[in-house]
Predict the structure.
Amino acid sequence: MYAKIAKSRLRNKERLLFVRNKVSHHTALNDADCSKLCCTKIEDFAVRIGQTEIFKNVNIHVHCGQLTAVIGPNGAGKSTLLRAILGEVAHTGSLHYVDAKGAHTGSPIIGYVPQHLRFDTSSPTSVLDIFMACLTDKPVWLCRPGKIRELVIKDLQRVKAEHLIDRRLGALSGGELQRVLLALALQPLPDLLLLDEPVSGVDQNGLELFYNIVADLRAKEDMAIILISHDLDLVAKYADHVVLLNKEVVCSGTPQDVFTDERTKKIFGMFVGENVFTGRALDK
Amino acid sequence: MMETIYGVLSLLLPFSWMDHIFMKNAFLAVLLVTPLFGLLSTMVVSNRMAFFSDSLGHGSFTGLAIGVLLGGVQPLLSLIVFSVVFSLFITYIKSKSSTSTDTIIGVFSSTAIAVGLMMMSYGGGFNKFSAYLIGDLLSIAPEEIGALAIVFLLVLFVWGWIFNRLLIISINPTLAASRGVKTMWIEMFFAAVLAVIVAISIQWVGL
């Protein structure tokens, strides 16, 4: 009995040491990344709405070619963080975008995939219409230049949704709609792609298809991706960098660092991280 | 100008009810107002602003009462100014608050109706407002048709410019923000245009 406790204590200590080393190592790696990859620096972000402080002291660096997952309980300020990055919500702090050569290039092009849409499902707006509304200044009802159709088909092919071009938005399934919105966020190709719980309520097939597309983008395109998700298994599988947000950045690092951190366990319950990582170890 | 239009109308519609000038005026006004409402209402519905437009009409009680009480000011002018301020205020509060839009509109609408009725019935002279409450299409004057034609052209222009932006906002405001649409300004602008149209058409179609 005592031996068991002692052993588990020892294991905890080892893990803590491991985490600490890993964190310092990772920070170093992170800073090194800043000089060779394009980097979006979110510095000292804080949002306050009325008397309520949504979050404060948020410092995150996101790099091109990496997927940064933001996790945290409901009401932690994750969605508001994305809306602050987009500039829709008033915030303090600054956002710097530095390209791979280290030149400060002002604000990045941002693509955004919303969590869920609140639109009239009986509306006659088609997929092509919504693309045209975003891409051209000419009113959608006026004319449809032939070129734009080819362009939209090409965009939709990227998310395997080219057959949906003439479908009404209201007639799409949850997974299809999110893929269409992803295609929309990728035109023009953004420097920073924000995904706000993009597949909540989407079935297993749709989920895998969506994440495969995102993983593909991460590998092939030169863009930084920020993903908000409650699905920790998927985060562990796809993310390079995880940020645990709960009114402020609680901890950040590689998925392994964050999921084995004591503070993560406190927030998500005891065995979340361990389950994920024993699962992951078995996969390998 | 008006004479030629009247001539064309008599030629195209040789009916006895078209013999009167006021009927011709009313006919022209209908021709201008209906497409205006048609194209604005599609955007109103897809942006879930149906209750908003309704409350604009009722809220203009107060604008009307203020105009009549001030005496020197034309009721129409105070009506337009009040409706625009009213609509901008609702849109602003809506974007700042997490309360449901209908709740906010409901609060504003009933306040404006109550204040307006109180001011109108002060001193018991409610009758002088009845022309506005019911509206009278037949009383429209040629110069008002001219003004309506200008508004019609302006709205056509606004329609072309704002349609795409409003369409994206109606899908998702944050998505619109990510595409560089200034959501709050666009919404406020549209609300103001709507307020002007509702205010000027009240004297013909009633509250």
